[in-house]
Amino acid sequence: MTQSAVEIHAYSRAEKRHTWSEMWGMIFKTLWRNKKSRVGLIILGIFILVAITGPLLAPYSIADTNFATSAAPSARHWLGTTQAGQDVLSQLIVGTGDSVITAFGVGFIATLLAIILGISSGYAAGWLDDILSFITNVFLVLPGLPLLIVLASYAPGKGIGLIILIVGFTSWPWGARVLRSQVATLRSRDFILAAKLAGDSAPRILVREVLPNMLSLVIASFLSSSLYGLLTAVGLEFLGLGDPNAVSWGSMLYWAQNAGALMNGQWAWILAPGLCIACFGMSLVFINFGFDELSNPRLRGDYE
């Protein structure tokens, strides 16, 4: 029985000759075939393109204050100007970069911590699982928004990096809990037992056997953490806890609220960053439909 398990494991390894590029190519084809996911990829691609080329696309410099103050939308300034005489459209385009970096930065940190702590806790047994589960439970019951406000208020310095670190290091427990429960169901499967009998170490089993089977969950955790990170960062910046000199969607809403944009008829100053936030979040939700299809083949017929 033992020899058979080892032979099966060796055969499965021989079958896993696909490169990472081939695997991601298959994932992309599945996502592109899904109509909702395709729309999400296109929208997200536009945001990423604008984030990379923002300063080149902006019609004016965001530091230019030579325009009329608090002007309504016009042919020259499509979204109007701020109370300081800056072009709102230019701020929106340039601010896309910081907003996208914030979202993906938080998603990366939160997902990395969720993978390390969640998978380790689910695969281990005994005292290590108890300690990691206790840490996860403590972070789960901490009041999120008040904690973020306190940390952002008293942390030295302001800026996008600080917000990414604060939000990223406080938003991992939900993903860790989901990954832990999934790994706990996998650790007794035959292919895991076969890998142990073949002499594989625990880190190798986690990376080569466990993690690929949870790819859709990991990506879903990244997407949800990115969306949460963007919304939380916008909320902190709207409360004035971000860098007031930085340009992002959240800081635009902060200055628009301070200037009484709605009272002065500058609706575009508030509506434009709000729509960008909504569209960015919608793109991540649509992309997640494709990853649901990857993890559950029975859904493939529903999206065609």
How would you describe the overall organization of this protein?
- The protein is mainly alpha-helical.
- Helices cover 72% and strands 0% of the residues.
- Helix 4 (88-123) runs parallel beside helix 8 (173-186).
- It is elongated, with a radius of gyration of 23 Å.
- The two termini are 43 Å apart.
- Residues 1-19 have low confidence and may be disordered.
Task: Summarize the model shown.
It contains 14 helices and no strands. It has helices at residues 2-15, 20-33, 35-57, 88-123, 127-141, 144-154, 160-168, 173-186, 190-197, 202-210, 215-238, 249-258, 267-295, 300-303.
- SSE order, one letter for each helix or strand: HHHHHHHHHHHHHH
How many β-strand stretches? Answer: 0
Average pLDDT, all residues: 83
Cα-atom radius of gyration: 23 Å
Question: Can you tell me the residue ranges where pLDDT is under 50 for at least 5 consecutive residues?
Answer: 1-19
Q: Please bin the fraction of helical residues.
A: over 70%
Q: Report on the biggest sheet.
A: none
Shape: elongated
Number of helices: 14
Strand content: under 5%
Q: Distance between termini?
A: 43 Å
Name the structural class.
mainly alpha
